[in-house]
């Protein structure tokens, strides 16, 4: 996979570059020092994933993510930041970030997150998920009533950041069945990916099955 690093701190960029270069399946194709440069380099280099800082000069990570997703819908953005509060997580995900991780993440876990995103899975730091769950939620729209009890269980597990295999194990079903349920969930909730589905669930207080 090709990764573009966007962070205004030289030490952070150097650290990420040093570790990611040791991974045989990862190629760091560029480094951006602010959000504006991240958008420009995303267009020039066409990375699979943009590893995006949240607070940067000229253009922050949320604005940059929104512009990247508008221009390149299939490009994946993983937010890597120090902020785990709801006021930062929700806007980032609504802008189109496919994942949200904190800078205290272990290097091996970061690589696992990148690989998960390439498989189409969501990746949310537990602190971010916890902060989202604490905030006020909007009433669940009528669309949630379209989900079957099993689909609600799958959605609840998906919101925890679990892979299809982990969901299958937790619910004692096959991975193929989980994939079918997830496809149905996307269609019924009118979302495009796992992260959007997780955000929908958290925003509407659907993080537990049956709610």
Approximate strand percentage: 5-15%
Helix fraction bin: 40-55%
Alpha-carbon distance between the termini? 38 Å
- The CATH topology assignment of the largest domain is Rossmann fold
Tally of DSSP β-strands? 6
Give an account of the 3D structure.
It is a single chain. The protein has 2 domains: 2-133, Response regulator (Rossmann fold, 3-Layer(aba) Sandwich), CATH 3.40.50.2300; 136-203, Winged helix-like DNA-binding domain superfamily/Winged helix DNA-binding domain (Arc Repressor Mutant, subunit A, Orthogonal Bundle). The protein has 10 helices and 6 strands; from the N terminus they run βαβαβαβαβαβααααα. The chain has helices at residues 10-20, 35-45, 61-71, 86-95, 107-118, 126-134, 149-159, 164-171, 175-189, 194-203, and strands spanning 2-6, 27-32, 49-52, 76-81, 99-102, 123-124. Helix 3 links the parallel strand 3 and strand 4 (76-81). Helix 8 (164-171) packs across helix 9 (175-189). The radius of gyration is 17 Å and the shape is globular.
